[in-house]
Amino acid sequence: MQRYPMTVQGAAALREELQRLKTVERPRISAAIADAREHGDLKENAEYHAAREEQGFVEGRIQEIEAKLSASQIIDVKDIAPTGKVIFGVTATIINTETDEEKVYQIVGDDEADIKKGKISVNSPIARGLIGKEEGDVVTIDTPGGEVEYEIDKVEHL
Known about the structure:
The strands form two sheets. The protein has a five-stranded mixed β-sheet with strand order 5-4-3-7-6. Strands 1-2 form a two-stranded parallel ribbon. The protein has two domains: 4-75, Transcription elongation factor, GreA/GreB, N-terminal domain (Helix Hairpins, Orthogonal Bundle), CATH 1.10.287; 80-156, Chitinase A, domain 3 (Roll). Helices cover 39% and strands 26% of the residues. It starts with a strand and ends with a strand. Helix 1 runs antiparallel to helix 2 (46-70). The chain is an alpha/beta fold. It has three helices and seven strands. The chain is elongated, with a radius of gyration of 22 Å. It has helices at 8-37, 46-70, 125-130; strands at 4-7, 72-75, 91-96, 102-108, 119-121, 138-143, 146-156.
């Protein structure tokens, strides 16, 4: 069985979404289907078909979240002694060696990735290039814009 690495925060966010889907969305959709049924002929009832489609999406998402949580490997980086090495869950500050531009990324699971919040997937090219390296190392990463050289400035267990 494949394990999905996840931060504590990522697992909590999935549990919250699961709770919302089960306690808010599911009853709302059931009520919408019941309401649409009362309008008669289901073949030509757009509200009924839209609610059934939404129900299928929500049920699929519930199954997906439950499967991921059951196969998750929750990693709390705060419980791991800092060594200066880039591992799953750490926050790494990297500096572009050409432009001196500094970027800060936390390496997280696929579901948690949000580049706008500085969270990158462990499977992203940048994370794959950083994992296993240490503070002070210079790494070359293949990006869509070509190869970029970064120096790992700081690795934090936040």
